[in-house]
Amino acid sequence: MTTATTATTATAPPTATPTTAETGSTDDPGARTHADVLEAEAVHIIREVAGEFERPVILFSGGKDSVVLLHLALKAFAPAPVPFALLHVDTGHNFPEVLAYRDRVVAAHGLRLHVASVQDYLDRGVLKERADGTRNPLQTLPLTDRIRSEGFDAVFGGARRDEEKARAKERVFSLRDRFSQWDPRRQRPELWQLYNGRHAPGEHVRVFPLSDWTELDVWEYVAREGIELPEIYFAHEREVFRRSGMWLPVGDWGGPEEGERVEKRRVRYRTVGDMSCTGAVDSEAVTLDQVIAEISASRLSERGATRADDKLSEASMEDRKREGYF
Amino acid sequence: MTRTTELPTGGLLRFATAGSVDDGKSTLVGRLLHDSKSVLADQLEAVERASAGRGQEAPDLALLTDGLRAEREQGITIDVAYRYFATPRRRFILADTPGHVQYTRNMVTGASTADLTVILVDARHGVVEQTRRHAAIAALLRVPQVVLAVNKMDLVGYREPVFATIVAEFTAYAAELGIPAVTAIPISALAGDNVVEPSAVMDWYGGSTVLEHLETVPVGQGPAHRRARLPVQYVIRPRTAAHPDYRGYAGQVAAGAFRVGEPVTVLPSGRTTRISAIDLLGRRVAVAGAGQSVTVLLEDDIDVSRGDLIVPTADAPPTTQEIEATVCHVADEALTVGHRVLLKHGTRTVKAIVEDIPSRLTLDDLTLHPHSGRLVANDIGRVRIRTAEPLPVDSYADSRRTGSFILIDPGDGTTLTAGMVGASFADPGPADGAADPAEDAGWDF
Question: Which chain A residues are within 8 Å of B344, Cβ to Cβ?
């Protein structure tokens, strides 16, 4: 059994070594688990991008989906290194544990990390802080600027179609125009496994290898592969306060306000994002098995439980995606 | 979502739904998700809130799936949406495809990877033009299983003769298309009859509910017996101190199985060697089967690159620069004779030219228009294509993976056409090659 505290090998795929497996293997090519199927398809997508694009990058937040994506990329090219850099959009309100985790992973695998900083845009006066304090919508400009300035032509994201209704409509290869905009009415039909990566100069493609994974698939894969995650995914004591029906963390991002009462609670996170809009859930789960058991029993979806910004309107995700957000 | 920490034993079923506008397809999907307890509390609350906001009395289950602004505004489904749910028996990926005529290409998208398709019919209207179109697409794409769901049985008094008449008409049409077997189920998506729970009012029906059928229908276990094919995606060369000489050919096995020691040929060059090792994402294995993403190492240091196809020497396909195929045109811009395009087959993209469009099919009555010369959006027809380089293509009937291709506009990258190599019911064949010229008058574009 893998626990949060004992899984110390940061997303290290087992390295292929010439062993004795060739002798009398009973491998049945037909016998595969659901996780095997999802893994093989994600790797196929990742390798297609490596084969067809000049300058791909992995959008990496330190959240479980992008962590799994990186793990798959490590496996896809082993024993060679991952031929992509990472790009992190730092809202300035990130969880310190997640930033520490990010830097550990980058160092462990000799990866290159680009950081696009929302704080930097605020300091320069290009972006303005919102009245509600959330910085999630502010990520779009630093992200799309960096994609343009670095000339990234394929941008991997860990988004899953089960997260949200607008995401359920998106292709695995999602073409974005030179303003990074998504037009749901002009999507390319995606036929068989023949992904079309052609694009005009200035356009790029967002690629979602985990499209067909569910939240539970991700957790089961994390457990199976022994992948380390940031500690905030497991139950811990934290000072939180209630806002819009969610437990938000106390921090220098601006919470709590007057009249919001701080409590110390035992919580964990189901998603990783900007502190101003990522809610914690009450939890006793300190191991992966316990997390999986809790999620299996939950009657709330991942985003419904923990994302304030998705509640802004019925189409808030679609609107942000149209502008260039993931 | 129905959460189960134990892996269901029945594996994964990918299926697609198809139906005309107002046949109740979104309601069926909503009912399937709702009654199988695949909808979480907050998602249902959102639907209840939205339904109440429009003054509807009951939650509109179609709102569970129509996710785009325009879809909610118009109350129709524009684009394919993918849904995920599980029961203790099996996991499902559902491609929920639109019914509108102008979105036929989206049905092709959904059907291209489906193991099964559910075609919905309104019991009051029976088999209509769209039904025939959906059946024809399922046949063209060779979706292995077809389910006919006769919906709105509540509106025809749950009468068996209504159901029997529709089934007889559909089955006859399906047989003409070469669809081997059809499973027909009388349902009411709105009332919940025979979707997840057996109907209390149709005791004349002794078959499975829709969900039971989806849970138990056999899924093609990767055609392991078929000809082995490995399109090379990427060459892995670490050139590190630990792996100075490693040279592996990465790809997903498209069909069949490969074994260590097996003599293989690399196409299109035709060079032969043997497989010296297979890495299955970090594990050395002796055999790799269809669907697995692997890295193959070869005994000899021959020239292999992305786009090549590794095949067993004993079972190598011929290569050709002349491809005849049935295609579905999916772009707004027409495809015409003389069109210069890119053709992507497996991992190889080559220049190509459309040499001939010998016929165009009318799906409504399966008539062929000879020498149409062009195909417009959503048309299905035959094409002859000449490629700049030789390609090892299989017949689509033998392999959905290596018998399929897409045509791409070299200018802006638009996906133009979905192609299926070899004969199909849309193939005029030598006998009907000279179709009645009187039909020409019926051209309607």
Answer: 194, 196
Tokens standing for residue A8: 């110390």
Cα four-point dihedral sign B309, A152, B280, B91: negative
Pick from A193, A260, A224: nearest CA to A44:
A193
Same domain, B301 and B276: yes
pTM of the model: 0.88
* Residues paired with residue B91 on neighbouring β-strands, in sequence order: B12, B86
Q: Is the ipTM of this complex over 0.85?
A: yes
Same domain assignment for residues B134 and B257: no
User: In angstroms, what separates the C-alpha of A196 from chain B's closest C-alpha?
Assistant: 7
CB contact under 8 A, A47 and B414: no
Q: Same structural domain for residues B16 and B137?
A: yes
Q: Contact at 8 Å (CB) between A129 and A91?
A: no
Which CATH number fits the domain that encloses residue B330?
2.40.30.10
Question: Which residue segment(s) compose the domain that B372 sits in?
Answer: 319-421
Q: What is the separation, in whole angstroms, between the first and last Cα of chain B?
A: 46
Domain boundary among B268, B287, B315: B315
Which residue of chain B comes nearest to A50, CA vs CA? B234
Q: What is the distance in angstroms between the Cα of A44 and the nearest Cα belonging to chain B?
A: 6
Chain A to chain B Cβ contacts (< 8 Å)? 236
Asked whether the beta carbons of A22 and B284 are under 8 A apart, the reply is: yes
Task: Give yes or no: residues B177 and B160 share one domain.
Answer: yes
Longest dimension (CA), chain A: 70
Which residue out of A43, A48, A77, A192 would a mutagenesis test of the B interface target, given it has the greatest number of B Cβ atoms within 10 Å? A192
Q: Which residues pair with B404 in a beta bridge?
A: B420
Within a domain: B297: yes
* Statement to judge: residues B144 and B37 lie in one domain: yes
Count CB atoms within 10 A of the CB of residue A26: 7
Question: Which residues of chain A lie closer than 8 angstroms to B293, CB-CB?
Answer: 39-41, 43-44, 47, 76
B415, A175 contact by CB (below 8 A): no
Q: Which domains does chain A have, with CATH numbers?
A: 3-214+319-323 (3.40.50.620), 219-312 (no CATH)
HSE value, Cβ hemisphere, 13 Å, CA-based, for A201: 0
- Beta strands per DSSP E along B20-96: 81-86, 91-96
* pLDDT by 10s per residue, chain B, length 445: 333 334 445 688 999 998 776 777 888 888 888 877 777 777 777 778 877 887 877 777 777 766 555 555 555 455 678 888 888 889 999 988 876 656 678 788 889 999 999 999 999 999 998 888 889 999 999 999 999 999 999 999 999 999 999 999 999 999 989 998 899 999 999 899 999 999 999 999 999 999 999 999 987 654 445 789 999 999 999 988 999 999 999 999 999 999 999 999 999 999 999 999 999 998 999 999 999 999 999 999 999 999 999 999 999 999 999 999 999 999 989 999 999 999 999 999 999 999 999 999 877 677 888 877 899 988 899 999 999 999 999 999 988 999 999 999 999 899 999 999 998 877 765 434 333 333 333 222 2
Return residues 260-289 of B near A (CB < 8 Å). 260, 277, 279, 281-289
Residues B209 and B101 in one domain: yes
* Nearest-CA distance B103 → chain A (Å): 10
CB contact under 8 A, B1 and A25: no
CB of B317 within 8 Å of a chain A CB? The answer is no
DSSP B440: G
Residue B201 sits in the same domain as residue B236: no
String of DSSP letters for A11-34? TPPPPP---GGGTT----TT---H
The total of structural domains in chain B comes to 3
Contacts (Cβ under 8 Å, ≥6 apart) of A288: A1, A2, A3, A4, A7, A219, A222, A223
Task: Classify residue B145: in a domain, yes or no.
Answer: yes
